[in-house]
Amino acid sequence: MKTLKERILKDGKVLDGNILKVDSFINHQVDYKLMDDIGDEIYRRFVDCKVDKVLTIETSGIPAAYSVARKFDVPFVFAKKKLSGNIGDDLFSTEVFSYTKSCLYKVVVSKKYLTQGENILVVDDFLANGQAALGMIDLVEQSGANVVGVAALIEKAFQDGGNILREKGYRLEALASIEKMDVEGIKIK
Ligand code: 5GP
Hints:
A hairpin with a 3-residue loop joins strand 1 (13-15) and strand 2. The termini are close together. Helix 2 crosses helix 3. By secondary structure, the protein is of the alpha/beta class. The longest helix is centred in the N-terminal third of the chain and has 15 residues, at 32-46. It has helices at 2-11, 32-46, 62-72, 131-143, 161-167; strands spanning 13-15, 19-21, 53-57, 76-79, 91-98, 103-110, 119-127, 146-156, 172-182, 185-188. The protein is globular and about 50 Å long. The protein contains 5 helices and 10 strands, in the order αββαβαββββαβαββ. The protein has one domain: Rossmann fold. Bound molecules: guanosine-5'-monophosphate (5GP).
């Protein structure tokens, strides 16, 4: 997606530990026009599929999931990282290793919001080693729903996540794919 690639090159910052900071337009301050375009592009790529619901993980996947859900005219659900008092105990739950925080955390979705037979499109801001996407896929499969595919705004192609998902047979669409990055710059495929 040309506008996303250009924005990454213009405003993305590379941090130590292979982290790309995009918090001026994607995951802290959010450029809503870019998010609208991201929703349009993910819709265009999955328009041949039946999508009943969009699933992401809080927090940074939420703006994109909203935008995609709006295009498909379906609800989106975000897996929660913390157990709030009122979520109930009828939950699907899985563990995810956080790439940015280097720790294992639990994510949950109420059983009310993932249902057998539904077609679920998984959306996230980044795909690095694939742990967040695999966690979401696990939640979907626990519920008996189907994974339509995974849409990542930014795939870091020098990490394993993309290959893992493709080898497992999941359809993956990344709007921008980063071949390599370091303090000297970002190279987009
Ligand atoms: P994975 O689970 O694929 O290893 O990593 C994806 C998750 O980690 C995403 O949900 C994203 O929030 C976070 N993440 C991974 N790499 C980056 C990165 O380079 N920059 C930012 N901001 N988040 C990342």
